[in-house]
Amino acid sequence: MVFYIVGAGIFGSVLAERVSNILKQKVVLIDKRDHIGGNCYTFADKETGINCHRYGAHIFHTSNKRVYDYISGFIQLNQYRHFVMTKSNNNIYSMPIGLRTINEFFNLNLTPSECKKFLEKKINDDYIENPNNLEEQAISLIGHELYNAFIKGYTKKQWQRDPKELPASIIKRLPFRTNYCSDYFNDFYQGIPVGGYTPFFEKLLNNDLINIRLNTEYNDIKKEITDNDFIIYTGAIDEFFNYCYGKLEWRTLKFEWSVENTQDFQGCAVMNEADEYIPYTRTHEFKHFHPECNDLIKLNKTIICREYSAEYKQGDVPYYPVNDKKNNELYIKYQEKALNTPNLILGGRLGTYKYMDMDKTILQALVCFDEICNKYF
Ligand code: UDP
């Protein structure tokens, strides 16, 4: 029996680790790219030594102790806490929206309890009975002025859809606060692996039972797989089934990189652009993700990367599932087909068409491993 795992991102690599280390079974792990780590892949820039995230910034955060304990067996998180600034109408504010942003935006000096009342009035003025899309959900949390300034333009750029056509769940990812906490995430455990994400994957996959084959497509190995083997597929589910019910929609990202001859370009790791007329959604400055690398922080060079969101076309990297009604219904058809395919397990953001963070993907893989053990071993 061999576990054929397609995709060396989080889901595939965690399962490869569990299957090889715990079940002592053989794994063939393939990836069509020339590296492991999927979209979490990081590398040290040759010129500056700064650790960069090739596929957009990934910040690890979780409140799940099982997930935290699992990753701690392989890596140590640094002390980075994610806070984000956002530009709106030529002013710079703290994101997510909290007391500092509200006071600055409305030119007020509210206390937390005054701010709660102030927002309640705004929300009542814009009262929406059952918010059932992103726009209604956002307005019913913060009122239309803050929505227009910080959410509407960014969301339109990010999704190229009217926020009324997007699910409310997307905006529930962001906290809204009435205090001065500027953390982007509420999670208990946060940070970036010391040395970046690639060493984490190298440690996960450090077992002779794992045969890693890079630059390899699923179609290249299909013929090797027998009825006794498992297929763990973490690519796009519609692609696996040759788009037999039609294509799922995805968003892709494009990146524009540059090295700037300055010590600190923007003063934080991520600067969002809330205005619709700015074509990119955010700028990453990677040295800020590693406050433990003091020599690089002081270096008079810095690497920045502008992120543009675009509609996915064949050949692009799929990043975000578009979880609207039409696509979710199509996904369910593929999911049913997958359930009726023996020895096939689909996982990860692409395989399950879910907008999942890294910790949720790790948990999904650990739970999947439990199910494999209970069912087959
Ligand atoms: N969002 C926004 N303005 C911001 C940041 C986020 O409107 O400055 C909205 C946008 O719709 C986005 C969603 O909140 O898709 C979730 O943001 P998050 O930062 O979780 O997105 P990710 O980091 O996964 O791209």
| Count of helix runs | 12
Bound molecule types: uridine-5'-diphosphate
The low-confidence runs, each spanning 5 or more residues with pLDDT under 50, are none
Task: Give the CATH H-level superfamily of one domain.
Answer: NAD(P)-binding Rossmann-like Domain
Shape: globular
Mean pLDDT: 97
Helix content: 25-40%
The largest sheet, given as strand count, sense and whether it forms a barrel, is: 7 strands, mixed
What's the CATH first level of one domain?
A: Alpha Beta
Structural class: alpha/beta
CA radius of gyration is 22 Å
Q: What's the CATH architecture name of one domain?
A: 3-Layer(aba) Sandwich
| CATH topology (fold) name of one domain | Rossmann fold
What layout of secondary structure does this protein have?
Elements: E1 2-6, H1 10-21, E2 26-30, E3 42-44, E4 51-53, E5 60-62, H2 65-72, E6 84-88, E7 91-95, H3 99-106, H4 112-125, H5 134-159, E8 189-191, H6 198-204, E9 210-213, H7 218-221, E10 230-233, H8 237-240, E11 250-260, E12 270-273, E13 282-285, H9 294-298, E14 302-311, E15 320-321, H10 325-339, E16 344-346, H11 348-351, H12 358-376
Parallel strand pairs: 1-2, 1-10, 2-9, 6-12, 10-16
Antiparallel strand pairs: 3-4, 5-8, 6-7, 11-14, 11-15, 12-13, 13-14
Helix pairs in contact: 1-12, 4-5
